[in-house]
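User: Please run a holo structure prediction.
Assistant: Happy to. Please share the sequence and the ligand.
User: Here you go; the ligand is 3-isopropylmalic acid.
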Amino acid sequence: MKIAILPGDGIGPEIVAEAVKVLRALALPLEMETAPVGGAAYEAAGHPLPEATLKLAQQADAVLFGAVGDWKYDTLPRPLRPEQAILGLRKALGLFANFRPAICYPELTHASSLKPELVQGLDILIIRELTGDIYFGQPRGRRTAPDGPFAGADEAFDTMRYSRPEIERIARVAFEAARQRRRKVTSVDKANVLETFQFWKDVVTEVHRDYPDVELEHMYVDNAAMQLVKAPKKFDVVVTGNMFGDILSDEAAMLTGSIGMLPSASLNERGQGLYEPSHGSAPDIAGRGIANPLATILSAAMMLRFSLKQPEAARRIEAAVQKVLAQGLRTADIAHEGCTVVGTAAMGDAVVRALG
Ligand code: IPM
Ligand code: MG
């Protein structure tokens, strides 16, 4: 089982180191190789996704990814910005299905900005289409100053676009996932305004005919944003496009009060996957040893389950994380009265000990 380890920028290297520690403690035949990505790769090799890094990712069964980005790269031309690494990996590996669970851990209910009764026991799954939509639509560009600075342009545009097969396959992923859960899918669109999303709604409705045992509801994205804070527990699986999924998954993550806890998986049709925490590179706290490694450790668990077919090892990691939380250990982002605040490495060590 080959794993490409791409730590990236900001807190990426610190949190990925803890996940690697936990993976090594499992004593499975895992072959891990590390490569730079994002700003770190730009510094080292002049490109956020160097050829060698991409090749390593393509040849691996799974990629464990930290985070990329730092404000200091904001002035670089777009193709050289750290974010292009993750977009490039998604496209090159065909990682069209992005799973972003939002789970409220009982010990962390207090961390939510919503009333505890609204989020207690929350367990929703956002499934975001990841390789289409306005993120990758052509044409895109600007007018008047094709290569020059934006200051000289008088128009810029991106194109929202989905093809039938792209919608069909993500809809199937959502209905299949719902069958393992509470059998409800909310498809989020903007069909009242956008052609792309009327098409989305129609195709999802067609695919639903094959899943009569799953309830399907359609919801406009603005309403979905509202319902997520009004009554989040009414959702089970939410399926949506790339752009709306980007926004709603951040919103859903924050309902749990602890974005530092949430893993994610991005899969292609062959089951190859990229696993990363739902949070970003947090350059403001990088290098201080205080970042929460649990989202990355839980992403490693998702990797074992989805791409490496090691469900037992995945369960061991998840149980260890629960145990550590029950012991009262917290990193600063989820700290509260009466808990024991620990740093990044100490949290990783505690998870290793809790593996039993
Ligand atoms: C995410 C991030 C990325 C996205 C950025 C870093 C390109 O926000 O994974 O949600 O917009 O998809
Ligand atoms: Mg995002």
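The chain is about 40% helix and 20% strand.
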